[in-house]
Amino acid sequence: MLLTPQSVELLAPVGTWDVLEAAVTAGADAVYLGGKRFNMRLHRTDTNFDDEKLARAVKYAHAHNVRLYVTVNNLISEREIPGMREYLKLLNQIQPDSLIVQDLAILQLARDMNITVPLHASVMMNTHNEHSIKTLMDYGITRIVANRELTLTQLTLLKERTGIELEYFVHGDMCVAHSGQCYHSGIVFGQSSNRGRCLKPCRWPYQLVDTATGKTVTANDPGLYKLAMKDMCLYTALPQLIQAGVCSFKIEGRMRTADFVSRVVKIYRQAIDRYIADPTGYTLDMADWQELSDYRTRDFSTCYALGNPGASSIGYTGEREPRFFSQAVKEADITANTFLPTVIPKEFAASANRPRPQLAVRVACLDSLSSALQNGATVVYIGGEAFKPNKPWTLKDVETAISEAANYKAQVIVTTPRITMEREISEYEQLFKSLETIKPHGLMVSNSGMLRLAQQTADLPIQADFSINLFNHLTAAWLKANGARKATISLEATYEQIAELAQNSPLPLEMIVHGAIEAMVLDHCVPSAVLEGTAVHLCRDLCTEQHYSLLDSAGERHDLKIDQYCRNHILFAKDLCLLPHLPALMSAGINHYRIEGQHYPPELVGLITALYRTELDKLAAGGNYTFDKTCIDKLTAISPRALGIGTFRYRISR
Amino acid sequence: MFDPVGVGLTQSMDRPGGKATGVAGMVPAAAKVAFIRELLPAAHSIGILYHSGDSNALLEVRNFKQAASSTFTLIDLPIVMPEDLSTLPARLPPVLDALFLPIGRVVEENFASVAYYAEAANLPIITSHAPNVPSGALGALVANHYELGIACAVKASQILAGTQPGSIPVGIVDSPEIQLNAFVADNLGIKLPQALLTKATEVFE
Asked: Interior CA angle at A527 toward A526 and A533, to 5°?
């Protein structure tokens, strides 16, 4: 395809009016900014635009032939829905060139409210497969901000298969974890990275230790900042980027100064214009490259654009970190204060029409499955990620699981991985075909693409996992409209938020009440990068013999679980345990409970299942309920990690 | 500029001497002590949490100790590295009524971790950095930077009229503003005094 000056858009971040003017003067084709409400940069009160200034900014940009996009990329809580409606109404009046959105609820709202401003899918939507893109296109999304883990080759493939406009981060600050799937800040601090308040635990210092001994495994530690991603810079790869079919080159940094934005925009502008005017005669401008480099914040990396960068993408020494947002803290333990209603009704309407509370358990192997079933699980989740040393579930395993569950009249639900790029998608498409004859009781999907694939190719009931980030009933309605029959509540919601959501939800909601919870999921392999300095595919199976953890400065040990795709899943130091709070959850109307048992040995899976089953049945029977606190001591003694209360420490998640 | 004398920009606050004068963003320590007194009338024991490698923090700690030693029992809580905040609970004395945070970048930036532990210990935080108030401090007495700009402009006009900069005293904040966080107060079970609520420039909910 022939290039024209319109083929590529240079998109600059804007936090204040002077940055807006600077970006426009420097030659940005488009700018993106946030209003004072609902966007991903809510820390600083001096950035972001109030309503009146937003309207003026749109006029200013349009007068200069520059497009302006407004970020509305937050998950919204139940209580924020009316405010969001108002905001969308306002935005529709001032007509920016697009709204960059995260919450699936906005897709529904925009449709219901006849919003005419085009919608772009934020990077926080973690869009990384063609089926997600097609679903989003059905809802009027005209462009996706692609996952930062996608390579240029994968982007080309997605573009060719769907025709969507692709926007890609080409310069600036990056996350080490998959966007929209990082719960570290949200659960520990009650300040969610999905709601614009990330406190950046990935920038903390960590030691890499052996999980069993707690001893450091690095003879030559490259440095403590093992998750500190360098800054993205694709200046040297502009020809590849342009030819890959990416139409919008996004510069990160809505909190950056006019000087910074202006310099980066000018340098990229010149290079893009020179390339488009004369692609074959194009050479790198060494003076500009030097200038970019001289004024860099962190060191540069091409991140995932040209392939998994491994150790080369991490700034281990921490020397160039511009600032920190928090330091590691001891996670709230099981004895910490909770924010729960002070009076919980003692009677739980033990009427005949209240169904027995469902107890689902996610298991890693057939032994654990038996253990869960014997102890009262009504649903078991199998499949999806297999964390080493566990092996993935074979078709035969699935069949065995189903026949075993039949003895207990329990259901077997086959799950799918959280991240499903083209490899996983193809594998699961084949699995769904096989499941037509094996007939499990249902499927659990982790992203909108898998939801679509399951809906179109499998004749099985579908439910949505926590990674969909269900924070309000409109998202539940969206899921229902797209074929889901049950959904899981976001791990970041607090009790108050759960109760409000449950009241309005059109779908039955499942609540994860116990187990090892993942703070982050990474395509970056921490042990192979630290120990061998390699990218993921070059490693010598470091994780088959040994298990690793990251130890933070508060002394908390975060176990690293590595799946069959070599993705690293970083666990919280404390496993969630809401056993004492079942009465409150019951009174909030929750009837589906889940234990994440995939990181426990079979005996422990059985024991925990039995404990929850007993308490749930006691509660369902009605009458005077008392909780035996000694079972917590028992649980604590045999759990591989300490127990904590997650977001129940907070009244609301901000 | 917080401490023009400390960084060698001026010889003294009253007579800068050289070619520079202006306004320092420092709120007088006595005013902060009076503010804490009014906000937390029952407080006796106050911990001062600061980064010992920060000259601004050290100056304010010195001033605050001078102004507060007769009013409060002061407990010194210096940190050497940012990571020291991770183990803050182990360093807090058993009896403590509030934390005072002098100015200083490291503690301000990593405030979330301080607020996290303070909340768990039911401990109110008085900060010197305005953005920490909506992030979980109970209150602060801070400079209004717009007014500092005006005060600075007055000095600039004196210079333009012929006065030597070295003879124009460096000003400090004479009308600091009160910021309070009602949500935090509620969580801590503290009733914000009506007089302070009336005087406050901003009360976060």
From this structure: 90
